[in-house]
Each structure stands twice: as structure tokens, then as C-alpha cells.
């Protein structure tokens, strides 16, 4: 069998049931791509299991144990090391609470091989909610039922000829079209490695600031191709990193508290393309417009839907079947006024891994 040109990087820290679920799924799917597992946790159970490579005979992976991710410094050290272990032309980032539809990958790799002016390629994403007996969304690896909504008909492709125009388009549409999820596209490794090597000289005080920097590097280097087909499914409420950093402050508050804007301003000196002073001003304006929109959406939504949330808790919450029906109904209602639509999708392939009765 020809060796795959893609490496998948899985970063983990604890949450053993999710990692075991991810590995079981990938092994059952006979994933043909090289996997690097970067473990910054302290769970000996998962370490011992993953070091026994015979437990996953249909996977080609390397398990790397790192010092405990006690802070961002250790976390960045782990990222910097594992990314520089990639020896394939393409790379894909994964979390242990997600699922990739693996049969989509060959066409994305073919596209990148045939189009050297594109730096990344991927598909649409679905949000997985695992439900308890009462219909609540739970932060567990399995439950009584599940609900997957796909954000469809989104113009994820960014094919403008000007590198700076691509960056401006991203900031303009990042929240509106959920372009943040392009993080889970396949990227050319060379660009990603160069971007991550910036961590040798600049440690971002906020992980989202670093992710913005990486995405900007990619868009300055090449175009982005997005297909309207389900490729990536992410479990809501299960992200360890997002959950831990959102405990006390939301993203807007963290950006201000940690002065992340200074990091991003400094990072412009390390971009793969040298920006003129005029282009830097354009970058500042574009980033400011995104930040203002994100803040407005965040704080308006806190108060706007309080009545509906209270009604939902009083009438629907606690009844599994009524909860599922209400979610579908509310999705159809919101689609009447939304430009970008949601659709309910069933993925029987996943039920083996997420339903209690099948595990």
C-alpha cells in the first residue's frame, strides 16, 4: 500500500474515555494515515494502553508522552515539538472529542496536489450533542441518544487572488460563516510548521490569538478550498481546552485582560509575507471589525433569548423525546430567517461509539 501523504496530529490531556473512543473509531475505520499522539496529561492508564501498539493493529501511530500541560508554556512546548515531527506534505489537527469522515480525505488531498495555489482544503462540519435520559446535553463519551446539526451552504472557500484580501475576508466572515472551523481542514505542512516555529520566539497569552495567527499565515500563503459536504463532527460541550479557558472570562474579556492584541501586532513581523504599513493598518481594521461583531453577538445573545431559554427549561427540559422534537422544530424555524442553514443529520456510522446501548 502506498504511504499516505497526510499526518494526523491528536493532542490529548486526560479524558481517557474520549481518547479510547477516538482510537476505537479510527482503528475500526482502518485509518491509513500516520497519526502522532501528543499526550500532555498524567493518566497512566491511557499511556500504558497506547504504548501497546498491538491494541490498535489497523493504525499506524506514534505515541509521545510530554511533561504535564500545567500551563500554556508546557502546552506550547508540546505543540512545537509534535508539529516538527511531521514528515508528510500535509497535516490535519484532531481532538479526541471529534470524528472525521475519512473517505472524504483522498479527494481533498487530490485537490491540493492539483492546485498549488491552495494551502488548505476540507468540508463542512457537524455539531454532535450527546443526550442523557432527560434530554440534557452531557459532557460524556456516550449517552441515551444524540443530535447532530450541520451548518450547511456556507461559502467556506476563500479564493481571492490577493493574500491580504483573503485575510480581510476571513475576519469579515469568521463569525458569520463560522470560518473558525476551517482549522480542521487539511493544510500544507510546510506552512503550518513555519507558523508553529514562531512559538520559539513568541508565546501568545491566549490560544485563540495563536490560532488566528496560524490561520492568517495559511491565508497569506495560499487559498482555501471548502466543500459543502460533511467531513468533521465535533462534540459540543466536550472540549477540554475551550472549557478550561472559558471558566472565568469569555473570549472578548480574555483578549482585553491578557492584552492579546499586542501579541497579534508583534506577530505580524513573523508572517510568511512581509506586510507594508498600509497592509498592517488594513489588518488592524479587519481584526477590529471582527472583534466588535463578536462582542456584539456575545453580549446581545446573553439577554436576547433569556425568555425562550426559561420557557424551554420549564416546558421541554427533562423529557428526552420532547427535547429532540423541540430541537428539530427550532432548527427549521431558525432556517426561515437565516442566510446559512442548519440541517439535522443522522450518522449511523457513529452510533456504535456514542450510544450506551451499543458500547
Automatic annotation (TrEMBL):
<dbReference type="InterPro" id="IPR031042">
    <property type="entry name" value="Glyco_TIGR04440"/>
</dbReference>
<protein>
    <recommendedName>
        <fullName>Glycosyl transferase, family 2</fullName>
    </recommendedName>
</protein>
<dbReference type="InterPro" id="IPR029044">
    <property type="entry name" value="Nucleotide-diphossugar_trans"/>
</dbReference>
Amino acid at each position: 500500500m502506498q504511504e499516505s501523504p497526510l499526518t494526523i496530529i491528536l493532542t490529548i490531556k486526560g479524558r481517557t474515555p474520549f481518547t479510547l473512543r477516538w482510537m476505537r473509531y479510527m482503528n475500526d475505520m482502518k485509518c491509513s494515515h500516520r497519526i502522532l499522539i501528543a499526550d500532555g496529561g498524567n493518566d497512566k492508564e491511557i499511556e500504558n494502553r497506547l504504548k501497546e501498539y498491538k491494541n490498535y493493529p489497523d493504525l499506524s501511530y506514534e505515541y509521545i508522552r510530554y511533561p504535564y500541560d500545567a500551563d500554556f508554556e508546557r502546552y506550547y512546548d508540546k505543540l512545537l515539538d509534535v508539529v516538527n515531527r511531521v514528515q508528510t506534505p500535509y497535516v490535519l489537527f484532531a481532538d479526541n472529542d471529534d470524528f472525521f469522515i475519512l473517505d472524504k480525505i483522498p479527494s481533498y488531498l487530490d485537490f491540493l496536489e492539483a492546485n498549488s495555489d491552495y494551502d488548505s482544503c476540507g468540508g463542512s462540519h457537524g455539531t454532535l450533542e450527546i443526550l442523557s435520559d432527560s434530554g440534557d446535553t452531557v459532557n460524556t463519551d456516550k449517552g441515551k441518544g444524540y443530535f447532530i446539526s450541520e451548518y450547511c451552504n456556507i461559502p467556506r472557500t476563500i479564493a481571492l487572488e490577493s493574500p491580504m484580501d483573503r485575510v480581510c475576508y476571513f475576519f469579515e466572515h469568521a463569525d458569520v460563516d463560522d470560518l473558525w472551523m476551517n482549522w480542521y481542514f487539511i493544510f500544507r505542512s510546510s506552512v503550518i510548521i513555519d507558523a508553529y516555529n514562531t512559538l520559539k520566539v513568541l508565546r501568545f497569552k491566549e490560544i485563540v490569538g495563536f490560532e488566528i495567527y496560524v490561520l492568517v499565515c495559511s491565508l497569506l500563503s495560499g487559498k482555501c478550498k471548502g466543500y459543502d459536504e460533511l467531513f468533521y463532527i465535533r462534540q459540543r460541550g466536550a472540549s477540554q481546552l475551550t472549557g478550561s479557558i472559558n471558566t472565568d472570562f469569555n473570549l472578548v474579556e480574555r483578549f482585553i485582560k491578557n492584552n492579546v492584541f499586542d501579541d497579534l501586532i508583534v506577530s505580524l513581523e513573523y508572517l510568511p509575507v512581509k506586510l507594508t504599513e498600509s497592509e498592517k493598518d488594513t489588518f488592524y481594521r479587519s481584526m477590529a471589525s471582527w472583534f466588535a461583531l463578536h462582542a456584539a453577538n456575545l453580549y446581545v445573545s446573553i439577554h436576547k433569548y433569556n425568555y425562550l431559554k426559561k420557557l424551554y427549561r420549564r416546558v421541554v427540559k427533562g423529557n428526552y423525546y420532547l427535547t429532540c422534537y423541540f430541537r428539530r422544530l427550532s432548527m427549521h424555524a431558525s432556517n426561515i430567517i437565516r442566510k446559512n442553514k442548519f440541517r439535522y443529520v443522522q450518522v449511523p456510522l457513529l452510533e456504535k461509539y456514542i450510544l450506551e446501548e451499543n458500547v
